[in-house]
Design brief:
By secondary structure, the protein is of the alpha+beta class. The chain is built from 20 helices and 16 strands. The chain is about 40% helix and about 20% strand.
Length: about 575
Amino acid sequence: MHVSHIVSRRGEKEYHSWLVRRSYRQDGKVKHETIANVSKLPMEAIEALSLALSNKPVIEAGADFEILDAKRLGAVRLLHTLARNEGLVRALDVDSRDRVHPRLALAMIIAQSLKRSSKLAMTRYLATTTLPGDLDINVSGVDDYYETLDWLGRHQKAIESRLIRAHTEAGAMLLYDLSSSYVEGTKCPLAKYGYSRDKKRGKLQIEYGVIATPEGLPLAVRVFPGNMSDLASFRSVTEELKSTYHLTKIVIVGDRGMFSTKNIEHLAEVDPSYLYVSALRSSEIRQLVDGGYIQLGLFDENDLFEITHPDYPGERLIACYNEALGHKRHKERDALLAVATKRLDKVKTSVAAGRLRDPFAIGRRVEKALASTKMAKHIITEIAEGTFDFHLNDETIAAESALDGIYVIRTTLKETQASAVEVVSYYKNLANLERAFRSMKSIDINVRPIRHYLEDRVRAHVFACMLSAHLLHLAKERLSELTFRDEEPPKPSSPVAKKVVSASAKAKAATKVNKDGQEVASFRTLLSELDTLEELTCRVKGCEVTFTKTTTPTPLQRRAFELIGAKLSV
């Protein structure tokens, strides 16, 4: 039974009737039987009758409510919807017999994206959201979290394979770079002393290499011991791209430390169809300049030109000059030389005062003074018993200054596959991967410090952080309208020039609103704003019947859901 609202017209007049009806099926057709006409009842009574027949609680207007529970709804539901729309849910569903762990893994990834803290804190955060109910899971404690982490580690390659297939195709370009993060404790077999990119001296560390799309979307990650070199990690990853993911005809973009002569030979052995884009070291550029292959005068008219060299068979070399980068390096060198000179003056004063006499002691003090500046190559020192003097090496400074702002890109891409301008832009895409590393390390996800000591769990932890970075990268792209991110960055005047910020992005930063007048904020602030959207469990005092009510979404929250292609139902 239900209450039907019937509207009829007679001439220009409109009549409204409210009828209590019973619906039933007869001879395959739905028919309605009118039980009573309740049109003369007060509207409040009609609404109460309609609710009662719909099996909904009838609540007196102005009744004394009590809120029994409140769950965060906005941020977790937005990321859950995005993960489903963008294929991450499908990628996690690698075992048709296991329906629980993929959902637990998704919950862990979303919680890690929103709560940059310990596993225990993320477990407690999940309990304050609607996500366990949406996914039909139960996270009773941190042990569930660790069990899910182990499940992720066991299925890592299968999940990565699905992500790579979803975001790459034949001839696709992949970025690869290596970073490191420090480890707490000494029990982890992967933790070794090595070159710390976190600038944490005296700390054990691990290293991990990330494979990403040109836009910086992480697709796969590999963890290595903390003392592994860039070259060794590169060889391991390229072999796996071939054997595990069966990728062929791809272009690998890596920094200048990746593509040594041995690595290039190794890449050809793994698969001759693999192409690469990288850059030469400064010593290699110096050899090209000294040999006359790069004539600095050519940069007066062009900021890039192509050359060939017998030492780089089958490769195109693209020499580039960035004036702004040249000025920056010149200022940095002058600043470091000033610091080095000031420190050496103090050593000289100590020697003149007789506090330092032994030549070995003086040498150690000089070495310590120059260690952090890395300017020893430009300073000539004279040390003897009880004497010390120094002066700048103008020749080496001038030689290095001549190369300020110059870099040379090397590639096996043919001219028919990519122009010189396109090759330069490919290499500069490495900056997108650097942003992904910063996102994983501190901005969005705290991959460090690593407190696990089991090798498999460390690998799974880094993999989970990569999946969170994957999800947040997609969210940042979709929600760029509501953040300070540049939605339509203009093309720079030159491929080697610094990226230019669009006028619309500058206006957003100045006015804190976008072109539609919608308020904008940082990405983390936007997530915090979404987190204020809650689902409340309520009841009228003295009544056992409970009901749920969602807080009224703000225009910002509604627009965020629209941007990911979802409708916010409240």
